[in-house]
Amino acid sequence: xxxxxxxxxxxxxxxxxxxxxxxxxxxxxxxxxxxxxxxxxxxxxxxxxxxxxxxxxxxxxxxxxxxxxxxxxxxxxxxxxxxxxxxxxxxxxxxxxxxxxxxxxxxxxxxxxxxxxxxxxxxxxxxxxxxxxxxxxxxxxxxxxxxxxxxxxxxxxxxxxxxxxxxxxxxxxxxxxxxxxxxxxxxxxxxxxxxxxxxxxxxxxxxxxxxxxxxxxxxxxxxxxxxxxxxxxxxxxxxxxxxxxxxxxxxxxxxxxxxxxxxxxxxxxxxxxxxxxxxxxxxxxxxxxxxxxxxxxxxxxxxxxxxxxxxxxxxxxxxxxxxxxxxxxxxxxxxxxxxxxxxxxxxxxxxxxxxxxxxxxxxxxxxxxxxxxxxxxxxxxxxxxxxxxxxxxxxxxxxxxxxxxxxxxxxxxxxxxxxxxxxxxxxxxxxxx
Length: 433
Ligand code: 5AD
Ligand code: SF4
Hints:
Layout: E1 3-9, H1 13-28, E2 32-34, E3 43-48, H2 53-69, E4 75-80, H3 81-86, H4 89-93, E5 99-102, H5 109-112, E6 118-120, E7 141-145, E8 147-148, H6 160-163, E9 167-168, H7 171-183, E10 188-192, H8 212-220, E11 227-231, H9 240-248, E12 255-257, H10 265-271, H11 277-290, E13 295-302, H12 309-322, E14 326-331, H13 349-372, E15 378-387, E16 391-396, E17 401-405, E18 414-422, E19 426-431
Parallel strand pairs: 1-2, 1-3, 3-4, 4-5, 5-6, 7-10, 10-11, 12-13, 13-14, 17-19
Antiparallel strand pairs: 8-9, 15-16, 15-18, 16-17, 18-19
Bound molecules: 5'-deoxyadenosine (5AD) and iron/sulfur cluster.
């Protein structure tokens, strides 16, 4: 009988793809099959995120719960960014954990499950040319890594210490993977990296003269690929050539994530983001001008050390000016191994909470106006998911979730939809025959 694998994935899209890679290796090279039941599992994996403190805090209670529920001989493995960061400390604190597998050591999953105890968290490990087995959670879209690690030194961020130095994956491998996925039905390709538009700075096999814009062109030349998305780009590297390709290449979805972090140039400097408020506004406005329907999402941190009311007002200013369609906002969380945790003038929690609520309420009220403008528009929707109540949902190129009445025959199809109802986070419409 096949062994059963239970896997929980936290954090970002990179983690989702890492989990797919582990599932692929375990189901194709070992004798595992996936289960949703903790009690039935022979192997329990948790793929962790360490970007903020809270989920790291919860990790130990969560694996404690796994330990209580699991079969006597089932193994527990802690993977991902918290695994990289805490390493063997995890096994010391929770001796029932069998192995700790860092975010940069995913390909060793088939080795670590065979050892009584293992800690594999090598930050220099190079998986950029490793040929993972194939597994995709969705038949309609394919996540494809284009780089590993991150070379930026944002002073709040633990990721360079959990995912290591940035190495780009050779373009031939990316194109080959995209071709294969698209031929198998995944018409939407989602290119992933911590910093996608820094692509091409360093390869581990040989030098190449290629950047992210070139890579976008190459992937868009694959006939079966109909849509390309990517995350996350960095505002600093949004040069004109990149914006022009984004605007003019019809296969590139018109949705851009532009992580602002702060609207204050002083704070951006303290964060070592490399751009100013004016640069960010210039890029966002240029984008809106070039692509009228563009959907811009962002990440914002409030309460970074030294953030005054005036600094926060600059953030609010950018929010009002850009009119982001989506904001992921967070209270600053001091992280180990980051310079900002030792900065003076840490902002007290109640001030940060107030700023966060203010920002979120403001954006919530802006969303009504933003979504109202969608009424009556016609979007081509790529349908991916059945929803309760006889609905099918998909996304427009500019990333609105759109649902219509319908059934599974719509799945995997591109269909024009007229928007008849708007909500803050999703739209509803009717198929245009
Ligand atoms: N505190 C709060 N938010 C953080 N992020 C990264 N590090 C921290 C931190 N120390 C946020 C950033 C990033 C997103 C993935 O998480 O906004 O873009
Ligand atoms: Fe979390 Fe960042 Fe790691 Fe993704 S890369 S899992 S967001 S810490």
